[in-house]
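Consider the tokenized backbone below.
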């Protein structure tokens, strides 16, 4: 019960910060996303690389920030789109730096530098596409709606998984996450669709109802996979949490593992059907 209360209070505080930063304006949005992305990459490197190749880790985080900021400036400040390709330069710097690392006894860990760029920085950077319209105007409402669908899906999965899934029904992916159950999956799916319908009816999602339902379904499924992907990383490296910054939840990566997959997939859907 103590852990549940702590988890709830920490979750409410985290949600409040995210909501406030998204709604205040584009500057707080930029600071929030840069901070979350950097924290998640640091947690990922702490889990996978420990204290090795620290300078290269710093270079990788800087490369991620450059990628996000160039896209941010392009979408919100009319920065020339062609110059976004400059984001590849820091990645080349990381590659060149690898040649000068003297101790290559565990050089295979260098692959984790590029993994985090793809796994964390690219999804976070894509959130710029939901935060700014084609004219460069900022509106955090759509991105907030996508977060809400992800959060409601997670809450539904947790509640139904803990109350029903642990006693009845089959496990979803026992070899990766023993606690994940089909009951939690279906519970999360139902609540995610309900959230999508409510967001549609209240105007936070300004799309036809059927688009909102499809969006909620694919985000729920993607979010479950996002959770499982992170669980697989943690199981391989024998860690319970990627960090301790959020009591009851673990690290920022633990809290946003679903969103890293769900929100980009949602954005891709909206782009493909040409409503974003």
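A designed sequence for it:
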């Amino acid at each position: 019960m103590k852990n549940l209360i702590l988890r709830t209070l920490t979750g409410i505080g985290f949600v409040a910060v995210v909501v406030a930063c998204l709604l205040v304006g584009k500057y707080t949005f930029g600071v929030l996303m840069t901070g979350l992305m950097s924290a998640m990459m640091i947690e990922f490197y702490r889990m996978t690389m420990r204290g090795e190749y620290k300078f290269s880790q710093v270079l990788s985080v800087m490369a991620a920030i450059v990628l996000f900021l160039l896209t941010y400036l392009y979408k919100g400040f009319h920065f020339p789109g062609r110059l976004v390709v400059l984001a590849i330069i820091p990645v080349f710097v990381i590659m060149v730096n690898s040649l000068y690392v003297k101790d290559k006894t565990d050089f295979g860990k260098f692959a984790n530098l590029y993994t985090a760029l793809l796994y964390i920085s690219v999804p976070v950077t894509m959130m710029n596409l939901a935060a700014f319209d084609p004219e460069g105007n900022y509106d955090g409402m759509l991105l907030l709606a996508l977060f809400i669908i992800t959060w409601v899906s997670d809450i539904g999965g947790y509640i139904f998984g803990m109350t029903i899934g642990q006693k009845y029904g089959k496990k979803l992916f026992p070899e990766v996450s023993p606690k994940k159950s089909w009951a939690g999956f279906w519970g999360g799916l139902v609540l995610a669709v309900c959230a999508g319908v409510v967001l549609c009816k209240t105007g936070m999602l300004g799309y036809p109802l059927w688009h909102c339902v499809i969006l909620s379904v694919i985000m729920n499924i993607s979010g479950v996979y996002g959770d499982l992907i992170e669980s697989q990383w943690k199981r391989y490296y024998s860690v319970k949490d990627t960090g301790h910054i959020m009591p009851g939840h673990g690290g920022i990566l633990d809290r946003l593992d679903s969103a890293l997959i769900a929100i980009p997939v949602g954005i891709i859907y909206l782009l493909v059907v040409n409503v974003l």
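Residues 140-276 form one domain.
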